[in-house]
Write a structure and sequence with these properties.
CATH topology: Beta Polymerase, domain 2
Helix content: 40-55%
Number of strands: 6
Distance between the termini: 38 Å
Strand content: 15-25%
Radius of gyration: 16 Å
Structural class: alpha+beta
Number of domains: 1
Shape: globular
Order of helices and strands: EHEEHEEEHHH
CATH superfamily: Beta Polymerase, domain 2
CATH class: Alpha Beta
């Protein structure tokens, strides 16, 4: 299993159960360094969806009580586990990444630090669980990803925007 994408690279790899194994390994490291409870660390994104082709990046959501209270000691603990805070501005989220090496050109893992059991946390887990339990939704999501790649293989923001309508439709099902 080869993890990692360079800046703005978009590439899909066939599903491998090794992604789950990697998540479990990293989760143990995060618990060791941060002292966070295991139920606050979840595998999300396409690598957490059985059978789904995905960008070779492990996405992890970590739930905290209050993003405003995230302090230097916690960020230092993430750093000890190999994760650095990115200069990404997202509402209700702090993003950290792990890199392939100290050139910092290739990301291998992301942490999405969000408020535990609030809307974004719940939406991210619902999306993962819904796609894992719904073959039609998985097929539709994969088709959307492949359609993007037919026209482009760069532009992570564009790739995310291209999938956004589908993702929001799935989030909306959580409140029905």
């Amino acid at each position: 299993m080869q993890l990692g994408l360079k800046n703005d690279e978009v590439r899909l790899e066939s599903y491998t159960p090794e992604w789950k194994d990697e998540f479990i390994k990293v989760k143990k490291e995060l618990m060791k360094y941060t002292k966070l409870e295991d139920y606050r660390i979840e595998h999300i994104g396409s690598t957490a969806i059985t059978g789904m082709s995905a960008k070779p990046l492990i996405d992890i959501v970590v739930g905290v009580d209050d993003l405003q209270e995230v302090d230097r000691p916690l960020l230092n603990s993430f750093s000890e586990a190999g994760f650095l805070r990115l200069k990404v501005e997202r509402p209700e989220e702090i993003v950290l990444a792990k890199f392939a090496d100290d050139t910092y050109k290739e990301k291998t893992h992301f942490i999405h630090l969000v408020v535990y059991q609030k809307e974004l946390w719940n939406n991210l887990l619902f999306f993962r669980d819904h796609l894992n339990s719904n073959e039609d939704a998985r097929k539709q999501y994969l088709e959307i990803k492949l359609n993007y790649l037919k026209s482009s293989s760069t532009g992570v923001n564009e790739y995310t925007d291209f999938k956004e309508v589908f993702v929001k439709e799935i989030f909306a099902k959580r409140t029905i």
